[in-house]
Amino acid sequence: MRISQLSGEAGIPVATIKYYLREGLLHDGLLTSATQAVYDESHLRRLRLIRALVGGAGLSIAAVRDLLGVVDQPPASGHDLLGHAHQAIIGSEVRPVDITPVDTMLGALGWDLAGCDDAAKSSVAEALEGMRSAGFELSESTLATYARTMHEVAEAEIAGVPTESAESAVRYVVLGTVLAEPLLLALRRLAQQAASRERFGVRPLES
Amino acid sequence: MRISQLSGEAGIPVATIKYYLREGLLHDGLLTSATQAVYDESHLRRLRLIRALVGGAGLSIAAVRDLLGVVDQPPASGHDLLGHAHQAIIGSEVRPVDITPVDTMLGALGWDLAGCDDAAKSSVAEALEGMRSAGFELSESTLATYARTMHEVAEAEIAGVPTESAESAVRYVVLGTVLAEPLLLALRRLAQQAASRERFGVRPLES
Fold it and tell me: How many Cβ pairs closer than 8 A exist between chain A and B?
């Protein structure tokens, strides 16, 4: 198909598609003349993926390029998979925060953090520090609920990683990690509304 | 204190503080001459709050202004609290997605959605649609885990809402909702690393 038809099918403007081509996010079409190319299903699939990462997950073009790089060239060994995917998503930057409270706190909750890198721990420490410096006091019990539920979520997710090929495994981890974030947060807000109604009611107590 | 000292204490450049003053996010200091003002602890607390919302939670200046508006002028009745807070955070826009699958799906999981607005449901529908259009198949069991754990999280959070004043309740809800998001997501990624290590190991199986 021509780029105009690709644009219609994907619901993405031609100018944006050309931008993705220039940025190397989308592979070139097959040239049929010096100025024209044709595109196929693989381009459509890739465009939908880019749209979900940019729009749905709100990632930057640079982060999307890194992620697509991991999807296109998955690491050879299975156990490096999550590390590579996470690095593409959050970078490997260890922020200048003290991570010992995170080790202590999660260790007390029974987490085995031996295989976890400092970048992931520093994200947790930074998030805790952000709440603290905003004057928000997170109760021990709510924090324990966060930790326990996220552990359950991660176990369900990792149990579902397909193992028939490294490509499918990486695709699952990368997309699942990024694309499920808006879903989890939206479910939480919806559940808060339901829980709030239960606690505070929608009308004054009837006598 | 002078603005330079305020800057030092808050770790925020003077130019940024002046920008927040112009944008109305930070209340004016007390004028001591035509060109000089002094600031106090209330300015420092507010700056730390703004920094957490902009930096930690990654909100736009416009969203922060809306949020601070809710914190400064909380709704009179307790049960409107969460609605106002969520509206400031996510807006009241109902996106053009079909929300009936969300009702069906969460109804089947036992959620009581009577008190929930369509904006919150459309966020869930949009997140699901984002995964689907990216070609990511979310299993029924993982989705059920997401829904169940987010319900637990919300119940713990709503149970912790302080009720001594509307201001403290709104502050808790607004900040808790926004500031806990990076924490939840960071905990999930850390837990994924731990779960991945458990499933895939960190070295080849020893013979």
Answer: 305
